[in-house]
Amino acid sequence: MIINAKGGSGKSTLATNLASYYASQNAKVVLADFDPQESSLDWLRARPKSRPLIQGIAAYKDGLKPSRGVNYVIIDAPASLHGPKLTEFVKKAETFILPVLPSPIDMRAAAAFIKEIKSTGPISRKQAKIGVVANRARGYTNIFAQLDEFLSGIRGVTYTTALRETQNYIRAAERGMGIFEFAPGATGVDREEWKPLISWLGSKRSH
Ligand SMILES: Nc1ncnc2c1ncn2[C@@H]1O[C@H](COP(=O)(O)OP(=O)(O)O)[C@@H](O)[C@H]1O
Ligand SMILES: [Mg+2]
């Protein structure tokens, strides 16, 4: 589940790129869009027929039923989930990815949200793992250094990676593809940045 209380942090970007990555590895992937804005579903509509198939679900209205023979279910969560709704919602997943932007407002919101999500039942009982991702990183800026330090210091969550800000994600979004589906030359840096996140997702333990 890709989740964060704040809109615009990169939830749909991560959800769609992850779906594209696993699909390119020949996995059967479901992309469940719980956001009525349908960004993930729009992305799927733009996806070329020649690319590996990803099954989209308009989960915000149709719900999410267990699907047989599926390797990965990726949930694109809506923004502004709090309180009892959040507690109910997190039961749908066992692994959580939170993208956070290098901005004071986003960092504050993320700190509050991480506190809240950690206090929900399944997560507080350590049955789930949480990874954070610094998104739209611009190296060597003061605000990125602050984000990096902030994410490194949160207890009980893994700081998995930092993804740079690049037009590659914009192009990928337009074309219904992921950065892994573009020529390695253009996206080599980005692929490297995804590696630690993907290996963390594949690991059993949270740390
Ligand atoms: N690393 C990035 N580099 C460049 N643009 C990005 C990056 N991550 C997200 N974006 C852009 O930022 C906007 C918001 O991202 P999105 O994934 O839609 O956020 P959310 O789903 O959390 O609202 C989109 O236009 C997206 O293309
Ligand atoms: Mg979104």
Structure description:
This protein is an alpha/beta fold and 207 residues long. It has one domain: Rossmann fold, CATH 3.40.50.300. Helix content is 44%, strand content 17%. It has nine helices and six strands. The two termini are 18 Å apart. The model has no long low-confidence stretch (mean pLDDT 94). The structure holds adenosine-5'-diphosphate (ADP) and magnesium ion (MG). Magnesium ion binds next to helix 1.
Structure keywords:
alpha/beta; globular; binds magnesium ion; 207 residues; 9 helices; Rossmann fold
**What's the rounded overall pLDDT mean?**
94
Provide the list of bound ligands, each named once. Answer: adenosine-5'-diphosphate, magnesium ion
CATH superfamily: P-loop containing nucleotide triphosphate hydrolases
Using only CA atoms, what is the Rg? Answer: 16 Å
- Summarize the main sheet: 3 strands, parallel
